[in-house]
Amino acid sequence: MSAIKMDGKALSAKVRSKILEETQSLKAQGIVPGLAVILVGDDPASEIYVRNKEKACTECGFYSEKHVLPASATEQELIALIHTLNESPKINGILCQLPLPAQISEDAVIAAIDPHKDVDAFHPANVGRIMIGDFDFLPCTPAGVMELLDEYQIDPKGKKCVVIGRSNIVGKPMAMLLLHRHGTVTICHSRTIDLPKVCAEADILVAAVGKAGFVTPDMVKEGAVVIDVGINRNAEGKVCGDVAPEVMEKASYMTPVPGGAGPMTITMLMKNTLKAARLQH
Ligand code: GUN
Questions:
Q1: Is the entire prediction scored with pTM above 0.85?
Q2: Which atom number of ligand 1 is nearest to the Cα of residue 96?
Q3: Which residue puts its alpha carbon closest to atom 8 of ligand 1?
Q4: Which of 17-26, 185-194, 229-238 has the lowest mean pLDDT?
Q5: CA–CA distance, 262 with 256 (Å, rounded to integer)
Q6: Which residue's CA is minimally distant from atom 11 of ligand 1?
Q7: Across the beta sheet with 63-69, what order do the strands follow?
Q8: How far apart are the CA of 155 and the centre of ligand 1, in A?
């Protein structure tokens, strides 16, 4: 058996064209959704992500601003920029690309963003709202995974869902969204005892580790749904996920890298920005 590939590129195109339609109807009312993207330093991966986010804004008919600060920027400079954007009527969403240089506290920067413009859903106020299930914005990567599951009619209800990785931006919120949909959720991490065995019990396995080929076939139950959130580069410099390609032979559904969860993440950012524009008017 070879898994059905969950096509995030195709679903993204579908969702983006729906967003464009909605943007056009907002524009008829004089409202143009606006996103500000901040990049600090010159990390090549971050530069690619930011470029893709700008491209997505154009595709969805949004206004966008890119702000680039040098790697030597101070926390005060970055927070001052965020305060300006918080007050800007043209801007509905603010995204500060992570990671940030070591001299800047990510927590302080996230806390400085107006929660109403926090389209990443990283602000503690929004994280708390997700926890209790009363939210405006969902974090982009987990939200994109949920849309992919829905598109392929995979219902987490009652199923054993295992998330590998406990980051604030992917692992923890991913677990929460699966729980909202009545999954039986386990979060695994670097200290988990016998991690392969825990993973091998999963009906739905989400890998958010950041290590190329981390998930091997022995860690996957026959017929499991495998979601690969990793974006890594292998020894040849090729983009690859956290899941070894051989897992395709064991899974029933699997997201490819690239072209699976990645495009959906940016599309969910667009969805949040559109929602932010609506809520602010
Ligand atoms: N760096 C990697 N993923 C993300 C994301 O979803 N949002 C932001 N702001 N930075 C990131």
A1: yes
A2: 9
A3: 97
A4: 229-238
A5: 9
A6: 98
A7: 63-69, 34-40, 93-96
A8: 27
